[in-house]
Structure formats: structure tokens, C-alpha cells
Amino acid sequence: MMVLILHKIRPGVRGRLTRWLIQPQSNVYVGHPSARIREVIWKHICDEIDTRGGSAVLIHTDPSEQGYRIATRGETPKTTRDFDGLILPKAAKAR
Fold first, then answer.
1. What tens digit of pLDDT does each residue of 58-71 get?
2. Backbone dihedral region of 53: left (phi > 0), alpha (psi from -120 to 50 degrees) or beta?
3. How many Cα atoms are found within 13 Å in the side-chain-facing hemisphere of 9?
4. 72 in Cβ contact with 79 (< 8 Å)
5. Distance (Å, rounded) from C-alpha 51 to C-alpha 26?
6. Which of 21, 53, 58, 95 is least buried, going by the fewest C-beta atoms within 10 A?
């Protein structure tokens, strides 16, 4: 399972994501692509954010203690920290 949450991403990129994922709500994409396709999608999203801005959160199943893994790119309201194998959210500092 894969959940991708995007913020300020070009509409063309969003359209390409619908090849592999469904969009149950605006800016939220869900699907069950293979690990290889997931990595290709995430690399494409990271390249897009590095060049044009925006942010993304990727949550996918993983054989870890919690059963999932979280990756973020760009400025997100919360970041994650690995605390002895547990992924814990951390709120960004107020500006």
C-alpha cells in the first residue's frame, strides 16, 4: 500500500500519477504499485520538488516494527524522526 500526499505540485505531475494511483481526495493518492514503481514515482516527485518547489509525504508498507515507512520532501508541517526503530512525527518550529 502506498499513500502520497502532495502540496503545490504542477497539474501535469498529478495527472501522470493517476496511471498508477487513485485520487480519493484532492492532493491525496493511494495505490498498491510494486516497489520498483513506487521508487520511480518517488524519485520523479523528489526531482519535481527540488526544481519547482512544493512538498510531498510518502507513506508505504514496510517490513519494519510499525509496518510502514514515511518519507518527506520539501517543507512539510511535520517531519519524522527515527527513534530506535519507531517513526515519530515532529512538528516544525513556528516561524
1. 999 999 889 999 99
2. left
3. 27
4. yes
5. 22
6. 95
- Annotate 42-58 with DSSP letters as a single string: HHHHHHHHHHH--EEEE
Per-state percent for the chain, helix, strand, coil, to nearest 5? 25, 40, 30
Map grid coordinates 514503481 to a residue: 37
Per the CB < 8 A criterion, the answer to whether 6 and 41 are in contact is: no
Distance in angstroms (rounded) separating the CA atoms of residues 30 and 15: 14
Of 74, 78, 73, 76, the residue nearest 91 (C-alpha): 78
Q: pTM for the full model?
A: 0.85
Distance from CA of residue 23 to its chain's centroid?
A: 14
pLDDT digits (tens, 9 = 90+) for 9-68: 998 898 899 999 999 999 999 999 999 999 999 999 999 999 999 999 999 999 988 999
